[in-house]
TrEMBL record:
Signal peptide as annotated in the record: 1-19
Any GO CC annotation of this UniProt entry: plasma membrane
Membrane topology type: Lipid-anchor; GPI-anchor
InterPro entries in alphabetical order: GH, Glucanosyltransferase
Organism: Tothia fuscella
Region (Disordered): 387-415
This enzyme's EC code(s): 2.4.1.-
Homology family: Belongs to the glycosyl hydrolase 72 family.
Gene Ontology molecular-function annotations: 1,3-beta-glucanosyltransferase activity
Function, as annotated: Splits internally a 1,3-beta-glucan molecule and transfers the newly generated reducing end (the donor) to the non-reducing end of another 1,3-beta-glucan molecule (the acceptor) forming a 1,3-beta linkage, resulting in the elongation of 1,3-beta-glucan chains in the cell wall.
Protein name, UniProt field: 1,3-beta-glucanosyltransferase
Length: 437
């Protein structure tokens, strides 16, 4: 009798977890079936507010929006900034129950690399920054539906290829922290701008030993604005040039906005045999209408209003089932060759060493997550560090998240802290000289 009276009380507490996603060759897999990302970017309030507004900690907003995610039939959302000191259990369970994974950027506008010049990026790679992003890993590693971590977003917006070692170093640091904490192997990679150095960067992040290579690479790419035809599109040469790439590729942002409402004609192409051997889907930019004018819904308090783009995308997804096959993925592959210097690629070949003050985190953990409650570094991490002078010899590695920009889309530029001290001309000249600029 006791068994029958206790069991009904326990049933509501049971959680059916989503299968953790792993990597095989250049593809994601869940339950031995290839996993294609089909999702939206999700940061109500806009990415510039990502340091203060955490949609995964907003229980009411999260549950409200999940109903619209289910209407769209998506399996992934990307969030650009979270409060690592907040509780995310309820929203993450609600997402899991809806079959939705989370791709999370570990940094935010306050805790990020400052790409203004070689000096600022050196100074912003510091122990305070690493403590923050490691604490973000701690906050989300426990959830089975944490799909992946973005170590950075558009740190290289145009020609700042000298930032590449920092992009690779932060990816390295995150991977080593995850291993040191004995977490499951949650993939770590970078979201890149679609610029002229895209192929050099792709090869750079995938060259060297496994401990410094990215687990995946994503592109913020709005270049497909055709009529749903792959041949002759701007995606065709990208697929050809990356056809032998040995880690997963996907689109961290896409959705041409040349016409309104958007047609989303690129969706069927992305999940077609023309692209699935190389790409594993992507994330539409973006869920809510923000300053840049993208979006699928308008939010006003607790109310949600679908705009025409929402229904167009919903119908397009319904008409484009995810591939049931493995999509012709490559089950194995070699690391890329590190790219030589060129007009597009000016990179110091070594990686910055881990800041001395951050070494303890690998043994002791990141400690208390501070979120927005850091009373000492109230302006974040960009200007608290002393530039590291050491470099580790390796195939390259480096950075963390930068605030976004895109040459294809009129969105926020990378933030340069208003608290930044004026950089002396002599110091700036010497640093630039060291990088060969």
């Amino acid at each position: 009798m006791k068994c029958f009276t206790v069991l009904p009380l326990l049933l509501p507490l049971l959680v059916t977890a989503l299968s953790s996603v792993t990597i095989k060759g250049n593809a994601f897999f869940a339950d031995n079936k290839r996993f294609y990302i089909r999702g939206v970017d999700y940061q109500p309030g806009g990415e510039s507010q990502a340091s203060t507004k955490d949609p995964i900690a907003d229980i009411n907003g999260c549950k409200r929006d999940i109903e619209y995610f289910k209407k769209l039939g998506i399996n992934t959302i990307r969030v650009y900034g979270v409060d690592n000191s907040a509780n995310h259990d309820e929203c993450m369970k609600a997402l899991s129950d809806a079959g939705i994974y989370l791709a999370v950027d570990v940094g935010n506008p306050k805790y990020s690399l400052n790409r203004e010049n070689p000096y600022t990026i050196m100074r912003s790679y510091n122990d305070v920054y690493l403590q923050h992003i490691f604490a973000t890993v701690d906050a989300f590693a426990k959830y089975d539906n944490t799909l992946l971590f973005f170590s950075g977003n558009e740190v290289i917006s145009k020609t700042e290829t000298w930032a590449a070692p920092y992009i690779k170093a932060v990816t390295r640091d995150l991977k080593q922290y995850i291993a040191a904490k004995n977490y499951r192997a949650i993939p770590v990679g970078y979201a890149a701008t679609d610029v002229d150095s895209r192929y050099e960067l792709a090869n750079y992040l995938n060259c060297g030993s496994d401990d410094i290579r990215s687990d995946f690479l994503a592109f913020n790419d709005y270049s497909f604005c055709g009529k749903g035809v792959f041949k002759g599109s701007q995606w065709e040469p990208k697929v050809a040039n990356l056809s032998k790439y040995s880690i997963p590729l996907f689109l961290s942002e896409y959705g041409c906005k040349e016409v309104s409402p958007r047609t989303f004609s690129e969706v069927p192409v992305l999940y077609s045999p023309d692209m699935t051997p190389v790409y594993s889907g992507g994330l539409i930019y973006e869920y809510s209408v923000e300053e840049a004018g993208f979006g699928l819904v308008k939010l006003s308090g607790n109310s949600v209003s679908e705009i025409p783009d929402f229904n167009v995308l919903k119908q397009t997804f319904q008409n484009t089932p995810l591939p049931s096959s493995d999509g012709g993925y490559h089950s194995s592959g070699q690391a890329s060759a590190c790219p030589p210097a060129s007009a597009n690629w000016k990179v110091n070949g070594s990686l910055p060493i881990v800041p001395q003050g951050a070494l303890k985190y690998f043994q002791q953990g990141a400690g208390m997550p501070l979120g927005g409650r850091d009373s000492v570094n109230v302006n974040g991490s960009q200007w608290v560090g002393t530039p590291t002078t050491g470099w580790a010899t390796a195939g390259g590695s480096g950075a963390s998240s930068s605030n976004r920009t895109s040459k294809e889309t009129p969105k926020k530029n990378a933030t340069v802290s208003s608290m930044a001290p004026t950089l002396g001309l002599v110091t700036a000249f010497l640093v630039a000289l060291a990088w060969g600029l």
